[in-house]
Amino acid sequence: MAAVQINDIRPGAPMRWLKAGAGDMARAPMVSIGYGLIFVAIGAALSLGLWFVGAAAWIPVALSSFALIAPLFAVGIYQISKHIDEGKAVTFSDVWLVSGEKISQVAFLGLLLIILLLGWARIAQFLYAYFASQDYTTLSEFTSWLLGNPAGLAMAVIGTVIGGMLALAAFAISAISFPMLIDKQIDAATALIASVTAVRRNLFPMLTWAWLIAFWTVIGTAFFGVGLAIVFPWLGHASWRAYQDFCTDCGPSSAG
Fold it and tell me: How big, in percent rounded to 5, are the helix, strand and coil portions of the chain?
């Protein structure tokens, strides 16, 4: 396992990544937005399932958990950007074509994110059991208790702090690792270390980038989730451009 060379970036780089990501999406709008719609549908199905079983109060936790592993789901978006860079026509089937040796490395990093997701779900369950005096099955009841009761506010604050720490860990692990695995002949451990190193050495711009990702994700979710069909691929393409800024000499490129 050899270390890779990570470039330092300028503080204003995240805005440039967003602009470049929008350019990628404009070059393959049908494929990019179609890919985003698939995951909007998955999130909607998850929310509806919780609603129908009388657990609507868990929808916010489920959606935030879903966001933790979004970088794994964005692998197809990285494939689109890679094809654009190579000057290839992009078709919907291209987003699923990950070679066998890469799948195992992607799956390893994906497993780490899933462990964080399960940890967050377990912590949320514990906090709810500790602070709530009764079951709040509807989203309106839960929201009223969360914002209008001291115990609910305490749970919200503690949950936000813990969730933020887990989200930061997931961000550090995945900031450039998944695009790197798609682009280079490299192992998961090397990609993970490179990603954490990139975040650690460029903390201010990367925290800005994390904030922008969170902000636009909230905006997309606010529009009943439909906005995520645009926001999700846009941020995925932008993450590919972020990776390219960091990694100009990270080992041999894959054949695609």
Answer: 80, 0, 20
